[in-house]
Amino acid sequence: MPTDLEPLDDQLTERLGRLSAAAIADAGHEEATVLSAAIAPLHADCAFVGTARTSRLDPDGLWVPLETLMHARAGEIVVVDAADEVSEAVWGELLSRYAEREGVVGLVTNGAVRDVSEIRTLSYPVFARGRTPRGPSGSAEEAVDVPVTVGGAAIEPGDVLVGDETGVVAIRRDAVAAVTDAAERVEATEREVRRRIDEGEPLDRILEDVGMS
Questions:
Q1: What is the rounded CA–CA span in Å between residue 203 and residue 119?
Q2: Are 49 and 125 in contact (CB under 8 A)?
Q3: pLDDT value at position 3?
Q4: Residue 157 is assigned to a structural domain of this protein
């Protein structure tokens, strides 16, 4: 039975939206996990921040995460665990169009998707392990709002995901503030490095000064 998930604080959402996935990864916080590079963006315009609304599928009979999508709310991301099975698509253009209308901010799956050009035209954020024109053969989701593993990351319902064209990072819900603080420090350091590069300083000295060497 789908459960209510506490929405992410607006201020934290805004702060995370200004951070790159790389900065969050570089923060090195143990409660932030980078998903495998196999979970790749469908197109370049795939940035998102949101809370995970999870679904697990039977890899022997994949199905679209319809129940999960129908219960997802604005600001959430549909996360589908298809056990790395990519023989059949679990998502396509019509689900993307509906999700966009409802304010659901993206899809992340270790399964396959289809209707790539249409999703790209929508600019809807989709990260997937594979692509195929074949539709699903199952008839139901195995479980919704349950812990899943996608791209090597254990993701609980309500965890926070940040994605851009370089990949996705999953953050434990109770660590979001700490991870955000740490990633903002990383980005501040990188801004300082950029400034000094633009001013013509030697890179080795800059990196030593900021503790990156």
A1: 41
A2: no
A3: 75
A4: yes
Tokens of 53: 């609304």
Residue 212 has pLDDT above 90, yes or no: no
User: Does residue 156 lie in a domain region?
Assistant: yes
pLDDT tens per residue across span 80-118: 999 999 999 999 999 999 999 999 999 999 999 999 999
In whole angstroms, what is the distance from residue 112 CA to residue 165 CA?
Answer: 18
Determine the Cα–Cα distance for residues 213 and 200; give it in Å rounded to an integer.
18
CA distance 197 to 137: 55
User: Total structural domains in the chain?
Assistant: 1
Q: Is the pLDDT of residue 1 over 60?
A: no
CATH number of the domain bearing residue 120: 3.50.30.40
Task: Give pLDDT, residue 148.
Answer: 98
Whether pTM > 0.70 for this model: the answer is: yes
Distance CA 110, CA 130 (A): 8
Sheet holding 112-113, edge to edge: 89-91, 112-113, 130-131
Q: Among the residues of 18-90, which ranges form H helices? A: 21-26, 66-71
Which residues form the domain of 77? Answer: 10-173
Q: Is position 180 within any domain? A: no
Is 206 inside any structural domain?
Answer: no
